[in-house]
Amino acid sequence: MSTILLSVIGAVILLDKYAFGEFGISQPLVTGAIIGALFGDVKMGIFLGAMLQLIFLGGLPIGRDIPPDGQVAGIMCSGAFFLLRITNTSGHALLIALLFALLAAVIGGTLDIFTRHYNNKLFHMFLVRENQLSMYHLLGLVTAFIRGLCIFLPLFALASIIMVPVQFPRMSQDLFAIICMSMGLANAVYLFVKRSTAVYAIIGGLCGLVLIVF
Amino acid sequence: MRLGFDRFLKILFSSFFIQTSWSFSNLQGMGFLFNLMSGAKKNKRSKIMDTHKGFFNTHPYMSSYIIGAVERAYDDEQSSTEEIQKFINIAQTSFASAGDLLFWEILRPALLLIGTILALKFGVIGPLIFIAVYTVFHLYHRIQGIYDGYNMKWDVIYIIRSKRFTTTQHVFELLGAFCSGLLFSVISLELNYLLIIPLSILFILLLLNKVPIVVITFVLILLIITIIWVGI
Q1: What DSSP string runs through A147-163?
Q2: Distance from CA of B180 to the nearest CA of A (A)
């Protein structure tokens, strides 16, 4: 799949973050499966999506707060991994894809602020031409789409040309899972485990053990 | 007084775009006006345009309740512009905090946690279940919100205390806690237990101390580089 096409698909999916709908399609868990299917490896796509989801389980967009963009990270991790895997080992691809994803999350958050500042201009243009409300409002889709392209295009292009030297340290799938699951567990405990709900967490743990044993 | 199916559809569809032009100067203001205008009767549009060009911000799924009530106020012509504005000012903050708590802090993370555990064990069923259940909840609030807002008018604000909010919140809070325990046992038997516990404690401490997510992300990057360099 070409870098440009993947970037366009990524930017379109990213519209779901806030520009259109917020249906949950842009969550890493879902985008991992979609990008995995596009590259013909749904299983790996879902694994990557699930791991990134655990890292960004707690990034809550409350009020005016703009946290690092977990949705961007999800798309970047799976997309970059499959692009990198063409010319590199899986271990190298995993390491670089995860670093790209975390970097993209931070860049995504920053670009989100720029986009919203740019949308101020749309509002002021609307105040001048009040009969063009729909046009200026829906131009927000374009700014959101361009934001997505600005993140994905350079990083995916870089991922498609990088060739990591064989001696370079690589990341095993287990280590990748350990890091992501530690963050996921911390997020889950932070979000849900309180004095009033601790019993349910213990019951959940016991049920998990029973399911695994039997 | 009835809303009518075609107006309902217009309001519902335009509510999907409520945050499209989100800006720092008036937040969802343009989206709110766009949403309001799409469902308004033709003879009311110029008045709405003159009155609602200001600031507006609420939870995107909760905007339906407010839009429904405001459409009703313009239809029955019994409320002054000041009354409508006062309702919007109160309702937007109330629904914002109720929606943020219900969807962003509880329901979505809980469903994502369930989806992730299912995805790790059974593959594609995880994301499918997440999307299916999440869609039921947000569409329910978006659709029912328009009708409730229109039928209850100003009283729609009291719906925040109803079971549709409190029970869902409580159930998903417990489900989230249950899944946290489940995730712990799923992880502990399959991966390197010794490394997960200290890492989890480190992240919990960072989260409890309200360290910004950006900083945690950089800690994560440094941690990965260190672990790889040390050669664990």
Answers
A1: HHHHHHHHHHHHHHH--
A2: 5
